[in-house]
UniProtKB/TrEMBL annotation:
Residues 4-42 form the SAM domain. This is SAM domain-containing protein. InterPro entries: SAM, SAM/pointed_sf. Pfam families: SAM_2. The lineage of its organism: Eukaryota, Metazoa, Spiralia, Lophotrochozoa, Mollusca.
Length: 66
């Protein structure tokens, strides 16, 4: 898992999600392809899923620009 993703999840209080994502070997690219139902299993709160998607979009855009 990318350090930026880990730090972001910590900042929104999703510590359990960090452990799950590390166990399942989920990174930014994989998460960007996950369905809403898949994300619900890791992040049950709608607000957390929305801010994660925004974060992912921003990080992917940064990587494409560099």
């Amino acid at each position: 898992m990318e350090p930026e993703l880990c730090a972001f999840l910590r900042s929104i209080g999703c510590h359990d999600a960090i452990q799950i994502m590390e166990q399942k070997k989920l990174d930014l690219t994989v998460i960007s392809y996950m369905s809403v139902d898949d994300l619900m299993q890791i992040l049950p709160k709608l607000g957390d899923r929305i801010v994660l998607k925004v974060f992912l979009d921003e990080e992917i855009k940064k990587k494409q620009e560099s």
